[in-house]
Amino acid sequence: MSEPEAQTHSLTVAATEAGERLDRFLAGRLEGLSRSRLKALIKAGEVRCAGEIVAAPDTRVAPGQCYEVRIPPAAPAMPRPEPIALDVVYEDAHLIVIDKPAGLVVHPGAGHWKGTLVNALLHHCGDSLSGIGGVRRPGIVHRLDKDTSGLLVVAKTDEAHKGLAAQFAAHGKAKGLERSYLALVWGALPRPTGTIDAPLARAPGNRTRMAVAREGGRRAVTHYEVIETFAGEGGRTVASLIRCRLETGRTHQIRAHTAHIGHPLLGDPLYGAGFRASARRLATVAREALNALGRQALHAAVLGFRHPITQDRLRFERPPPLDMALLIEALRTQGGNPPDPDKKGRAASG
C-alpha cells in the first residue's frame, strides 16, 4: 500500500480579505478544516508566503499575497513492525539500549511514517514495548535528532517507562542520570571548560529551529569541555572537538547553544549555515570528510541511569561512528601533525 500524499493549496488574498488574520483567512478558503487545525498547521511551519514560513496565526494578510498551505496526510493508526537492524548495546525484560545510527528517525511523524526506530523496535520487541508513549511513541522516553548518532534507552514495560521518564524529567537533579555527547564545533572556544546557561524557545518565524529566548523559554544548561583543537591552513584553530554534558534535555539543545556562542557544529545545516565558508579553511582531506559526513557532527557517547526496576547504576559508552571518526582523523592530520593515540583514545571513550 502506497503512503498517503500531502495536499498543497495556493491561495491569493483578495482586496476584500485585506487585514484578516491568517488563520481566519485560511478557514474561509479551505473547506473541511477547522480554525484550530489551521492554527496547528501554521505553527508547525506548513504555511508559506513568498517561500518563507509564516508561523504566526494572527499575521494580517495583504491583497495580492499568495499563501501556500501544505496539509500532511493523516497519521496511520499504528506503526507497523519492520525488520530494521538494531545495534543493541544492552537488553533485559524491562528496557533496551541501542546505538542509533545517524539518519534513523526515532518515531513516526510527518514525512516519516515508516523506517523509524519505533518500527524497528516493534519488530525486535514484539508487543512488549511500553504503551505509555502512545501508539506512535511506544517505549520512547527521550529522543535523538534524526542525524545525531548514539545511545538511547527505550522502555519495554509501563513500570520501566514511568521510572525512566521520571529520571529524564528531573534530568540534572536526578542522581545517576548522565548524558554526554561528542561534538565538533567551528573555531576555538574561549575557555577549556564552560557552561552555557540560556533558555530556549521556538525561533520566531521558523518552527523548525530553537533559539535563545530573551523572555520566557525553557531553562537549558549545557556544560562543555574542550578535548582537542585542530589547526587549519595558516595554523589558526579551525575546529574543536568538545564533550558536552547535558544538565537539561531540550530540543536541539547542544546545536542551538553552540550556535548561540558563535561555534556551531560542523555540518549542521540548520544552525551552522553561516559557517559554510569556513570549510574553505580546511585541507582537502578534511573538507572531503566533512562533505561525506553530510550531517551535524554530534554523537551521544555516554548514557548512564538508574535501572528503573533494580535501581542498579547502568552506564554505557560508544565511540563515534565511522563517518565522524574519519572526520576527526582528517582534522588531526590536515595540519601535518601525526595522530596522537592518547587523544584518539580519550575521544573514543566519550
Number of helical regions: 8
H and E order = EHHEEEEEHEHEEEEEEHHEEHH
Share of helix among residues? 10-25%
Work out the number of β strands.
15
Radius of gyration: 22 Å
Any guess at the CATH architecture of the largest domain?
A: 2-Layer Sandwich
Count of structural domains: 3
For the largest beta-sheet, the strand count, sense and barrel status come to: 9 strands, mixed
Quickly name the level 1 CATH class of the largest domain: Alpha Beta
Class per helix and strand makeup: alpha+beta
Q: What do the pLDDT scores average to?
A: 90
User: Could you list the spans in which at least 5 consecutive residues all have pLDDT below 50?
Assistant: none
CATH superfamily of the largest domain: Pseudouridine synthase
Question: In whole angstroms, how far apart are the ends?
Answer: 43 Å
The coarse silhouette is globular
CATH topology of the largest domain: Pseudouridine synthase
| Residues in β-strands, percent | 25-35%
